[in-house]
Amino acid sequence: PSTSREMPSPREKHYAKPKASVEPVLLRWLNAEIGCAPDQQQQQSQPITDLDKSWRSGVNFCALVHKFRPEMVDMEKVRARADATPRDNVELAFETAWRELGVRRLIEVDDIILR
């Protein structure tokens, strides 16, 4: 008789639940990555405190794209544009993400700004 144990099927595997909610970890990562961490000299974005309202102005989407292609999104201009609407900012971020990074638009602008 074989003494080796059979591998459980994927449906039989039991994965450990995370010890903490994923949201706080994601929020810390986002704030650190796009320039909202407390130790950042110049903040590129607005503080991200949740995964909903913090994104409605579009500034944080622009900052996220800026993180990967800083030459394509000038955050000083984004923050200084008094006439820009949240729709303008989200459109800028989404269009640049598609054109420069190949990131498809998986959510509509209205789903973000009209919530």
Structural features, described:
With 115 residues, this protein is an all-alpha fold. It has a single domain (22-113), classed as Actin-binding Protein, T-fimbrin, domain 1 (Orthogonal Bundle). The chain has 5 helices and no strands. The model has no long low-confidence stretch (mean pLDDT 84).
Query: C-alpha Rg, in Å?
Result: 20 Å
Q: What is the fold-level CATH name, i.e. the topology?
A: Actin-binding Protein, T-fimbrin, domain 1
Oligomeric category: single chain
Number of domains: 1
Runs with pLDDT <50, length 5+? none
**Proportion of residues in β-strands:** under 5%
N to C succession of SSEs: HHHHH
Protein name: Calponin-homology (CH) domain-containing protein
Keywords: Actin-binding, Coiled coil, Cytoplasm, Cytoskeleton, Membrane, Nucleus, Repeat, Transmembrane, Transmembrane helix
Organism: Pristionchus fissidentatus
Pfam family, one: CH
Strand-helix topology:
Blueprint: H1 22-33, H2 59-68, H3 75-80, H4 86-101, H5 109-113
Helix pairs in contact: 2-4
GO molecular function, one term: kinesin binding
InterPro entries: CH_dom (IPR001715), CH_dom_sf (IPR036872)
Protein name: Calponin-homology (CH) domain-containing protein
Q: Can you give keywords for this protein?
A:
Actin-binding Protein, T-fimbrin, domain 1, 115 residues, elongated, single chain, 5 helices, mainly alpha
Summarize the entry for a quick read:
The protein is mostly helical. The chain has 5 helices and no strands.
